[in-house]
Specification:
This is Cationic amino acid transporter C-terminal domain-containing protein. It is a multi-pass membrane protein. It comes from Lupinus luteus. It is found in: Membrane. This protein is an all-alpha fold. Helices cover 69% and strands 1% of the residues. Strands 1-2 form a two-stranded antiparallel sheet. Helix 10 packs antiparallel against helix 17, helix 11 packs parallel to helix 14 and helix 18 packs antiparallel against helix 21. The longest helix is centred in the C-terminal third of the chain and has 51 residues. The protein is globular, with a radius of gyration of 25 Å.
């Protein structure tokens, strides 16, 4: 089997990374010819069972899988870079666009509480991501973590939604970029869009400016990770100065009468808004994919991730308070809320500063997203669940060029057509689903180790996790369908019992070597509960779109991804076994066995 781009093929010649031969995409044995594929397809049930039950290992992800890109990513980042990447990744269109939308239509001035709820959920997820990123510092992020703890199949379903999250998130930010650019030019956003009246209203506002922005971001992301970091740092500093200006200048025009009523849509509105505003926190997971390029992961990742999330949450809450004090929530503009708010209070000149700051912020979000999503796709392709062509790392730049260009091309297509409201809801589903799985994987990591955890403790672990997941789902479903309290009175104690039973009744199988989440299992269990709860606040159409995408992933996996990853895994196992057997031979030689004795040691080929 030929290795992917840039590798040495069977004939010894080195192939270029950006070729488009069939073997660049499907070099595995199952795809050599139709007979091979037919035999592989007939083995689908057996292969699926193998991939569902097989888990990777830390060492495999850190060494063998990483080596499939042929060239190393350059270790150029420290905690300062990561913290600014985190700030740059998160503070973008969520705060500058969705705050106005959710304050006006869902939460009113209580939108600040929506940000608090989303922020707590995001911070819990940050803790889980941080432990994994420190222990398994590879470009695969949550895909690699899930592959180690929950197996290939779950990891692939999550991986597909990770890629969807990035494509949709980038598209949403790119379209928001156009809105604020229009404000800067004293125009309506639709003045820069092409409206096709014969298409659905959700898809007929074509956005060519979004395409141009994404092309510029692609060039920078491909050129250099450190160069991207420097640009991000400069842009993020400017961005924070603008945020400080918005808060200080806005509060000078505060009117406390605008805070009454505080929660016009009641508690339900606060949580509905919180589920959508989770979009505003998306991006920190991209920072975890940079662990492979971090000089000292054990020190840099916790400081960078947790520090950036605390700064971001604090800034979000202050900005939400400021906006709702400047204008009655009914009058907030849903496209450019802060710019219009300054115009409404007689500071029309300030809207240009706000628009420029928003554009800077969105540019850094797009940049960090481009860097992160390419590294996700690179690591997924290293396992051959996606074609290995995407795993190529350029020798000169040390960046995954193929993955970067491909992901941003997909983002550009979506950004060209799709309305922001559709994008933000669908994005929140994918994100909450993945964060829930990462928290679940952390519990499995701490309480299960093959060969260490007894059968009895395995059963206890499964019972505990079923209670935690089931009660969390029940809370979410009851919230979505009822205004009563009886369901909560049953489901909340069940969640507490499940978590307490895991804490008291199941011994830990593993402790983190370098940095660990505090208060395990309570914090990961709470993360699971909050993420599932917020899922219950998202609209039905978004779940239908999510289901269609997941169905597409299953079809791709069963017909292509399963067989490619199965062949790759078995080839790796064979190579590893051969290495072990050769080592046995050499150890016998070193111990002084004669040649005839050594020749009896079997070595498979």
């Amino acid at each position: 089997m030929e290795e992917q781009n840039g590798a040495v093929n069977n004939g010894g010649a080195r192939r270029r990374g950006c070729t488009f031969q069939r073997n660049d995409f499907f070099p595995e044995e199952s795809f050599k010819n139709w007979n091979n594929y037919s035999r592989a397809f007939l083995e689908t049930p057996f292969r699926l069972k193998d991939r569902v039950l097989t888990r990777s290992s830390d060492q495999t992800e850190l060494v063998e899988v990483k080596s499939r890109s042929n060239h190393e990513m350059k270790k150029t980042l420290n905690w300062w870079d990561l913290m600014w990447f985190g700030i740059g990744a998160v503070i973008g269109s969520g705060i500058f666009v969705l705050t106005g939308l959710e304050a006006r239509e869902q939460a009113g001035p209580a939108v600040v509480l929506s940000y608090v709820v989303s922020g707590i959920s995001a911070l819990l997820s940050v803790f889980c991501y941080t432990e994994f990123a420190v222990e398994i510092p590879v470009a695969g992020g949550s895909f690699a973590y899930l592959r180690v703890e929950l197996g290939d199949f779950v990891a692939f379903i999550a991986a597909g939604n990770i890629l969807l999250e990035y494509v949709i998130g980038g598209a949403a930010v790119a379209r928001s970029w156009t809105s604020y650019f229009a404000t800067l030019c004293n125009k309506n956003p639709d003045d820069f869009r092409i409206i096709v009246h014969k298409m659905s209203s959700d898809y007929n506002h074509l956005d060519p400016i979004a395409i141009g922005v994404l092309i510029a971001i692609t060039i920078l992301a491909v050129y250099s990770t450190k160069g991207s970091s420097i640009f991000n740092y400069i842009a993020s500093v400017f961005h924070l100065i603008v945020i400080a200006f918005i808060i200080i200048a806005g509060l000078t025009k505060a009117n406390t009468d605008n805070y009454s009523p505080f929660a016009p849509f009641k508690v339900r509105g606060v949580f509905h808004a919180s589920a959508v505003l989770f979009f505003a926190y998306v991006g920190f997971d991209a920072v975890s994919t940079m662990a492979e390029e971090t000089k000292n992961p054990a020190r840099d990742i916790p400081i960078g991730l947790v520090g950036s999330m605390i700064v971001t949450t604090f800034a979000y809450c202050l900005m939400a308070v400021t906006l709702c004090l400047m204008q009655p929530y009914q009058n907030i503009d849903i496209n450019a809320p802060f710019s219009v708010a300054f115009s409404a209070v007689g500071m029309d000149w300030a809207k240009y500063i706000v628009a420029l700051g928003a554009l800077k912020g969105m540019s850094t979000v797009l940049l960090v997203s481009a860097v992160g999503q390419a590294r996700y796709l690179t690591h997924i392709a290293r396992t051959h669940m996606m074609p290995p062509w995407f795993a190529h790392v350029d020798e000169r730049t040390g960046t995954p060029i193929n993955a970067t260009i491909s992901m941003l091309a997909a983002t550009a297509v979506i950004a060209f057509f799709t309305d922001l409201g559709i994008l933000s809801n669908l994005l929140s589903i994918s994100t909450l689903f993945i964060f829930m799985l990462v928290a679940l994987a952390l519990l499995v990591r701490r309480y299960y180790a093959s060969g260490v955890t007894t059968k009895v403790n395995q059963i206890k672990l499964i019972v505990s996790l079923v209670l935690i997941l089931g009660s969390s789902a029940a809370i979410s479903a009851y919230w979505a369908t009822s205004d009563g309290w009886i369901g909560f009175a049953i489901a909340v104690p069940l969640w507490f019992i499940g978590t307490a039973f895991l804490c008291i009744g199941v011994p830990k199988a593993k402790e983190p070597k370098l940095w660990g989440v505090p208060m395990v299992p309570w914090l990961p269990s709470l993360s699971i509960a909050i993420n599932i709860f917020l899922l219950g606040s998202i609209d039905k159409k978004s779940f239908i779109r999510f289901g269609v995408w997941t169905g597409f992933l299953l079809v791709y996996y069963l017909f292509l991804g399963l067989h490619a990853s199965y062949d790759t895994a078995k080839e790796f196992d064979q190579r590893k076994n051969n290495t072990v057997e050769v080592d046995k031979v050499w150890s016998k030689v070193e111990e002084g066995f004669d040649e005839g004795e050594v020749s009896k040691v079997p070595v498979s080929t």
